[in-house]
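Sequence design from tokenized structure. All designs in this work follow the same two-part layout: the structure record, then the generated sequence. An example of the structure record is given first.
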């Protein structure tokens, strides 16, 4: 089960890598169009914001999977493998899960209202899918909780002395 959960984060990470490349290419195109041809489109500029949000919101679980989030390593790095497993288990259960549940709870009405009206850009010529962008507020905590579950299960295995997750 741990491997399947981690595979979700890894697949999302590969997708985010492509979104990052696309974001760079679109940004380059916007700059070239603006400064070389004195033209541009609101939708193209907004797409950079959408891609930026995708990269950060969907990349969070992948970053957690690979230990890339910022942490205070003053004590953590000096702990044994079992001690780090305890910190990961308790940190996920007591910090990550409550925060992700709060984000889901606080975002639910905001996102559902956006879907109700199929909210679009406020700018003329902007992208019509603002409701899709806001959906990331629900997808990110779900992805983080799935990866958090994998981290907790892997930590429990280490605490129990099992080596293969």
């Amino acid at each position: 089960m741990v491997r399947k959960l981690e595979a979700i984060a890894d697949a999302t990470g590969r997708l985010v890598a492509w979104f990052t490349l696309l974001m760079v290419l679109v940004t380059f195109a916007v700059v070239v169009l603006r400064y070389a041809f004195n033209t541009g489109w609101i939708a193209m500029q907004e797409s950079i914001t959408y891609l930026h949000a995708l990269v950060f919101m969907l990349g969070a679980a992948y970053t957690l999977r690979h230990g890339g989030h910022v942490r205070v390593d003053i004590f953590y790095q000096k702990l044994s493998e079992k001690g780090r497993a305890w910190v990961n288990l308790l940190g996920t259960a007591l910090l990550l899960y409550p925060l992700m549940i709060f984000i889901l709870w606080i975002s639910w009405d905001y996102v559902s209202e956006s879907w109700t009206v199929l909210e679009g850009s406020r700018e003329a010529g902007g992208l019509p899918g603002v409701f899709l962008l806001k959906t990331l507020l629900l997808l990110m905590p779900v992805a983080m909780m799935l990866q958090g579950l994998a981290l907790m299960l892997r930590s429990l295995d280490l605490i129990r002395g099992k080596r293969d997750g």
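Helices lie at 2-37, 42-65, 73-76, 81-116, 130-160. We note this feature because it recurs in several other targets discussed in the main text.
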